[in-house]
């Protein structure tokens, strides 16, 4: 999410010369944007393509539903570990996701049902949705913090400081960010509910593909709405 002027010049003019001086060059913007796209592509591969491909690949060679589904969860572990090493800190969401993979596997061993594994991702998206909504009353709602990388890539550190300073002086700016945060959180919760419904209403072999397509549809609709909203309200950098 990116944002600029809502029609009111409310930023401290004393910051403007510095923002102009520290603004990244066009080449730097392209480099940072390319880096963000590469990261998203890798994330998409490990979190969607690899688990989905491993499930249907193993099923094609005769593996059982339980083993095929567990394999998808196990393949997530290196990606989670890489994130911890790369950031040099243990994040709560990474620990939570790892715990769910282990817990769902143990529960499925006890029950013998692959459907227990199928609702694992529902807990993840529900937790994300609740966390996103929980940031609404704070000074840094989800959309504001998640947009920092994009803002820095486009306008640099000084531009980010000016962008974040709008929170203190523009009520309309705060309204826009909170509304977008509420929409993102609600979509994550909707995904969690729909995954549980699918897990107990469709065949097991149909679930990985169906749930992935459903998430892509929800995410595509969410991003489309987000881009429309920020463009319509003059928030795009």
List descriptors.
237 residues; mainly alpha; 11 helices; elongated
| Count of all domains | 1
Helix count, DSSP H or I runs of 4 or more residues: 11
Number of strands: 0
Bin the strand percentage. under 5%
Main pleated-sheet profile = none
Shape: elongated
What's the end-to-end separation, in Å?
A: 9 Å
User: Structural class of the helix and strand makeup?
Assistant: mainly alpha
Spatial extent as radius of gyration: 21 Å
| H/E element order | HHHHHHHHHHH
Rounded average pLDDT? 76
Unreliable sequence segments: 1-21
The level of helicity is over 70%
Report on the structure:
The chain has 237 residues and is mainly alpha-helical. The chain has one domain (13-232). 78% of the residues lie in helices and 0% in strands. It contains eleven helices and no strands. It has helices spanning 16-22, 26-60, 65-74, 76-87, 92-111, 114-118, 120-134, 142-146, 148-169, 171-199, 207-232. Helix 1 runs antiparallel to helix 9 (148-169), helix 4 (76-87) packs antiparallel against helix 5 and helix 7 (120-134) runs antiparallel to helix 10. The longest helix has 35 residues, at 26-60. The radius of gyration is 21 Å and the shape is elongated. The chain starts with 15 loop residues before the first helix and ends in a 5-residue tail after the last helix.
């Amino acid at each position: 999410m990116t944002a600029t002027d809502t029609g009111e010049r409310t930023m401290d003019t004393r910051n403007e010369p510095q923002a102009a001086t520290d603004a990244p060059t066009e080449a730097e913007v392209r480099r940072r944007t390319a880096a963000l796209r590469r990261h998203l592509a890798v994330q998409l591969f490990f979190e969607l393509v690899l688990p989905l491909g491993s499930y249907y690949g193993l099923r094609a060679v005769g593996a059982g539903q339980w083993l095929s589904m567990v394999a998808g969860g196990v393949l997530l572990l290196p990606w989670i570990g890489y994130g911890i090493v790369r950031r040099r800190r243990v994040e709560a969401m990474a620990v939570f996701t790892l715990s769910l993979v282990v817990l769902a596997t143990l529960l499925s061993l006890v029950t013998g049902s692959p459907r227990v594994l199928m609702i694992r991702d529902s807990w993840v998206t529900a937790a994300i949705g609740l966390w996103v909504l929980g940031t609404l009353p704070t000074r840094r709602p989800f959309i504001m913090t998640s947009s920092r990388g994009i803002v820095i890539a486009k306008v640099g550190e000084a531009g980010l400081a000016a962008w974040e300073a709008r929170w203190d002086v523009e009520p309309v700016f705060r309204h826009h960010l909170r509304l977008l945060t509420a929409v993102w959180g609600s979509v994550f919760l909707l995904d969690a509910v729909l995954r549980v419904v699918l897990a107990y209403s469709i065949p097991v072999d149909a679930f990985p593909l169906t749930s992935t397509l459903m998430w892509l549809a929800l995410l595509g609709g969410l991003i489309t709405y987000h881009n429309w909203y920020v463009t319509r309200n003059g928030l795009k950098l």
